[in-house]
Write a structure and sequence with these properties.
Largest sheet: 7 strands, mixed
Number of domains: 2
CATH topology of the largest domain: Aspartate Aminotransferase, domain 2
Number of strands: 13
Strand content: 5-15%
Oligomer: single chain
Structural class: alpha/beta
Bound molecules: (2S)-2-hydroxybutanedioic acid
CATH superfamily of the largest domain: Type I PLP-dependent aspartate aminotransferase-like (Major domain)
CATH architecture of the largest domain: 3-Layer(aba) Sandwich
Helix content: 40-55%
Length: 396
């Protein structure tokens, strides 16, 4: 049966973890996967999470099946965070939200639903995009193409080309957009550029699918969420996948969601019924614990305030690491303009290094980044940054 099965390549991001774990180099540094580590290189357990967990454990309940679409209080809390609890779209009930297995799970539910709805549609992702976007939508059965995004020469976004590609896309094309903290480049659209993109999406009748995996890591929770507000104002139907992996440091709990903004409550009810079929036939219904933790934090004012503070702490530390990286690279002799590193937002820096240079970083120095040149600046700290900068300087 399996004689003809070929060995699949390692995952370009998670596969690096396997390589990293097997590397005996004591000085190794993992800047591959998008995970925030604290100033001591440790994965944080947020205080708000620990407190919510303690409360949940003390009041431990039996574990029945959850509803197919997840915990109602959680789904409502997600809507409040993403769209604003008082927004007409939320209060009128025209958004269908389901709990998902992380942001990836939210994307997959949306992709499977869209494939049933509009099987001939094409999917456009940014060039480049998160490695898994292409694979996920391809596996859902779509032809996936890319719209121009990164401009290597300008160290920024080729906005003219991006807009032209969207203008040329046929109606019904699904356009995957990074709501904030673009993965992998770190370059985000300006508020004015977002408005122009939304105008084209609307006039061309394209289907926006916003991937929101880093809310709070750019400018702030509300600031990063403002783009969603612009989409609501435009009065179009759109998808948002939400991840709490990074913002709650709950990677392994797989807590996320999918929201579909519809025209009416009745439409949302029908969409929800279809999303439930997708979920039921994939994994039946979601797990309980992580979503309970997130719901508890988001709905308890003191814990919510603590979360905002802790998330701000992560954001501020990442920005400090960006500045320190520039200083250390200059000290290590790099002459080129490095201001792009502090212009980028979120966990990643698209370093501009090529695959051969990234492989040298790994092989000679034990510094693991993605072959695309992406490094996770959220994994830098005062102890490892000097070695990272010296190694980068050595390979450029
Ligand atoms: C990343 O891009 O490193 C993260 O989103 C983790 C993942 O699942 O790839």
């Amino acid at each position: 049966l399996f004689a003809a099965v070929e060995m699949a390549p390692r995952d370009p991001i998670l596969g690096l973890n396997e390589q990293f774990n097997a590397d005996p180099n004591p000085a190794k540094v993992n800047l591959g996967v998008g995970v925030y580590y604290d100033e001591n290189g440790k994965l944080p357990l947020l205080k708000c999470v620990a407190t919510a967990e303690k409360q949940l454990v003390e009041a431990a309940k039996p574990r029945g099946y959850l509803p197919i679409d997840g915990i109602a209080v959680y789904d409502k809390a997600v809507q409040g965070l993403v769209f604003g609890a008082a927004h007409e779209a939320v209060t009128s009930g025209r958004i269908a939200t389901v709990q998902g297995l992380g942001g990836t799970g939210g994307l997959k539910i949306g992709a499977d639903f869209l494939k049933r709805l509009n099987p001939a549609a094409k999917v456009l992702i940014s060039d480049p995009s998160w490695e898994n976007h292409r694979a996920l939508f391809t596996n859902a059965g779509f032809a996936v193409e890319a719209y121009p995004y990164y401009d290597a020469a300008a160290r920024g976004i080729d906005f003219v080309a991006m807009l032209a590609a969207l203008q040329a896309a046929p109606a019904g094309t699904i356009v995957v957009l990074h709501a904030c903290c673009h993965n992998p480049t770190g370059y985000d659209l300006s508020p004015v550029q977002w408005l122009q993109v939304i105008e084209v999406l609307k006039s061309r009748q394209l289907v926006p699918f916003l991937d929101m995996a880093y809310q709070g890591f750019g400018q702030g929770i509300a600031e990063d969420g403002a783009v969603i507000e612009r989409f609501l104002e435009a009065g179009i139907d759109f998808f948002v996948s939400t991840s709490f992996s990074k913002s709650f440091s709950l990677y392994g709990e797989r807590v996320g969601a999918l929201s579909v903004v519809c025209e009416s409550k009745d439409e949302a009810a029908r969409v929800l019924s279809q999303l439930k079929i997708v979920i039921r036939t994939n994994y039946s219904n979601p797990p309980t614990f992580g979503a309970q933790v997130v719901a508890t934090v988001l709905t308890t004012p003191a814990l919510r305030a603590l979360w905002e503070e802790e998330l701000a702490g992560m954001r501020v530390r990442i920005k400090a690491m960006r500045e320190l990286l520039v200083t250390k690279l200059k000290a290590a002799g790099v002459k080129e303009d490095l201001s792009f590193i502090t212009r980028q937002q979120g966990m990643f820096s698209y370093s501009g290094l090529n695959a051969a240079q990234m492989q040298r970083l790994r092989g000679e120095f034990g510094i693991y980044g993605v072959d695309s040149g992406r490094i996770c600046v959220a994994a830098l700290n005062e102890h490892n940054i000097g070695a990272v900068a010296k190694a980068m300087a050595a390979v450029v």
